[in-house]
Recover the amino acids of this structure.
């Protein structure tokens, strides 16, 4: 039972490049989330999907887009990366909104 | 706007002693509080939670206390073990925007043998 799987684990981008972070969960959870973790800031919600077919903005959505491909998969896209998006990104899932979260192992992204 | 605050970036305790991690919140509408534990290069994992209708919840060596009037919660670990060394995040949800679980900045706990 893999839980929440994120790819890639590490990525280096140049300013202006685009990329997609992939996330999949095998726990049959309804809700999925993307967070970023920055020093001294804790985890901040970028986007979430309450259920398949819906997505909503979180606390820091600017510069990102998401797709809930199906119940299992929730991807995060950076269309034009900026140095301010250098961070550790975590995908998470839960049975229902704002219930106990299960996290992936994270993606370390550096934008030069 | 940090609605959940962990004012101690780090804490060091001796093995076998009590560890007390503190968390304050500003939004009185929060009704569900959680603690997560994070090891390096891993995602956070759920540790313990408490709903606002309770003031204490215990799970083995871990106890969370909630003081709603002070908008304060704490995590007690007794006895502390070296394997407890990790970053601990406090989180809260509920209220106006029930979809946004807010996290504190984390406290790094070091338990010395």
């Amino acid at each position: 039972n893999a839980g929440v799987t994120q790819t890639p684990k590490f990525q280096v981008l140049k300013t202006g490049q685009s990329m997609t972070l992939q996330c999949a969960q095998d726990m049959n959870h309804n809700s999925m989330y993307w967070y970023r973790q920055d020093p001294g800031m804790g985890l901040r919600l970028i986007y979430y999907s309450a259920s398949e077919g819906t997505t909503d903005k979180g606390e820091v959505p600017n510069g990102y887009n998401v797709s809930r491909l199906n119940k299992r998969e929730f991807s995060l896209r950076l269309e034009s990366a900026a140095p301010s998006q250098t961070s550790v990104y975590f995908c998470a899932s839960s049975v229902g909104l704002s219930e106990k979260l299960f996290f992936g192992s994270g993606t370390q992204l550096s934008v030069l | 706007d940090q609605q959940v605050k962990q004012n101690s970036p780090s804490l060091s305790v001796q093995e076998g002693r009590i560890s007390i991690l503190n968390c304050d919140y500003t939004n009185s509408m929060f009704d569900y509080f959680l603690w997560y534990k994070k090891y390096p290069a891993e995602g956070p994992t759920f540790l313990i939670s408490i709903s606002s209708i309770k003031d204490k919840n215990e799970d083995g060596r871990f106890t969370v206390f909630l003081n709603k009037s002070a908008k304060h919660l704490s995590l007690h670990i007794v006895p502390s073990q070296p394997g407890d060394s990790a970053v601990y995040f406090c989180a809260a949800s509920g209220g106006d925007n029930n979809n946004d679980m807010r996290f504190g900045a984390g406290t790094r706990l070091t338990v010395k043998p």
In short: Chain A touches chain B through 24 residues (CB under 8 Å).
